[in-house]
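question for whoever is on the cluster today: can someone run the full assembly for these? two chains, 664 residues total. i dont have access anymore since they changed the login thing
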Amino acid sequence: MSTHLSTDQLLHAYTVMRTIRDFEERLHVEFATGEIPGFVHLYAGQEASAAGVMAHLNDDDCIASNHRGHGHCIAKGVDVFGMMAEIYGKKTGVCGGKGGSMHIADQEKGMLGANGIVGAGAPLAAGAALASKLKGSQGVAVAFFGDGGSNEGAVFEAMNLASIMKLPCLFVAENNGYAEATGSGWSVACKDIAERAVGFGMPGVIVDGNDFFAVHAALGVAVERARRGEGPTLVEVKLSRFYGHFEGDAQTYRGPDEVKNLRETQDCLALFRQRCQAEGWLDAAQFERIDGEVAQLIEDAVRLAKSDPKPQAADLLSDVYVAYR
Amino acid sequence: MARKISYQQAINEALAQEMRRDQSVFIIGQDVSGGTGSPGEQDAWGGVLGVTKGLYPEFPERVLDAPLSEVGYVGMAVGAATRGMRPVCELMFVDFIGCCLDQLLNQAAKFRYMFGGKTTTPLVIRAMYGAGLRAAAQHSQMLTSMWTHIPGLKVVCPATPYDAKGMLIQAIRDNDPVIFLEHKMLYSLQGEVPEELYTVPFGEANFVREGRDVTLVTYGRMVHIALEAAANLARQDIDCEVLDLRTTSPLDEDSILESVEKTGRLVVIDESNPRCSIATDISALVAQRAFAALRAPIEMVTAPHTPVPFSDALEDLYIPDAAKIEAAVLKIADKRNAA
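^ ran it for u. tokens below:
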């Protein structure tokens, strides 16, 4: 069996997934110490989705993320040091410490923003796609939302608009089974979120979100379709989160041993590594090298974030407007 | 003598001239052209009251009809603004913000700040506001105080055709999100408007009538009602100064204070509901910063704390009129005379 992915692409995909995993696992530990302000929503377990989608995008392409956005940010190329500092509320953060975990954005990387309002990113992504179309650029935009977000009217309206305007926009529904503590089997009226695509006149695709290669293949088709000007696709990525809705969530709504079993049998990083080694695409030494580099990166990011300065009093009043008299 | 055109024509002209000048300007909203997907004419309406009529034929790629989908198309305008475009998004009636407030309250207004000053959202939301068309409770509100309350937004309420053109051009060129409010009762108002492009800066109130006895502070359609009251009062030898705020965010605090320092008397006139309103905000400002100059209590003339009624008999009572303003002025002017 072969893959059309090059060795460099495979190494990059693993690096992205490993970086997200280590970033989130470390935040899980650090958050418990009380040093991180506010609350964080971890992406661990869902890495293959972010990596598989973003493998098709460049800096001219945009994504709109949600509250569970760290993975999307890392995969889109946002600086890990700046992200960690932001989550710690430091002046050196990508938003100067004024956004935090739920509002990490980097326009230069095409990262429109994580978002604290569920579903709100979908119209923003459609708007970025409209901007691409009006400017005649090749850029596409991707809206990420979860099973919870898939029930928001903002997502429905964005899908309808993107479809009637044939916008280069993709809708990626990351269905991890839970909107906070509410099960998607109950909250989503149809069997699969992807079925809703029919109502908006676009293809709907279901993909195994634990399988990087499946996500990569499905998104390849959808992104190319969008770039050709043929309009949006709804891709439902079925996956699981390893942690709660937010850190501190006791997850009593989940089944006994559910997360333990997921970690043992559905870990997208382990599955990726097994596949690559079984097929002879990458060897153990290559994985171990990346593991070591990422571990050091996260260690350095946390160390710096902890020692970096906080914003100053003057920062309270800055950047409300570009100019306001 | 400059030519005279209507408030509505002034808005149309500003849009056309800016779209000619800048390819990144586009218009999106329901029926801004009118007729998309219908068997008859395109540009059939040019906006529900015809304000954007004629723009589609000149800019077919940049005048975009949207379906009834306020969250969707307002959100798209916000997203496009962050990616190098200058959308002018028409919400039709400002009341419809109930459908899509999140995209302005939590998205556009917050981006600059929460993203650390690295995102620019040059967006204009155009919307009709105000009572008087017998359009009832869901098509007649002001909501200016609600907008003004939100940091990150600018709020513009032109009272004349001249300001409508110059402030819309400023709004389009401005790099922050601007709520541009058009009083529907002013659309047919005629006024002198230069043919060339010009801007009217935000945050500079207009002294539309100089006077020494009482300061009347207002904005939007009420500027004209205040001027009518001032003319009537002049016949009773009461000389009112009328200040048109033009924008409620930014607010020209200095001009308000300067006028009250001179007259010692203030009547704030606001067509919106009275609680937490522009009227109460300005009253608080003057009470805090010019208390020593006041020679009488501050008066407010506002709509009552009710929705806008339908029947003309009730709506006419709801909207502040010249008689109410005159009564308020006489109340405090009398105190001066007694003293």
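summary bc i know u wont read the tokens: Chain A touches chain B through 48 residues (CB under 8 Å). The longest strand of chain A covers residues 169-175.
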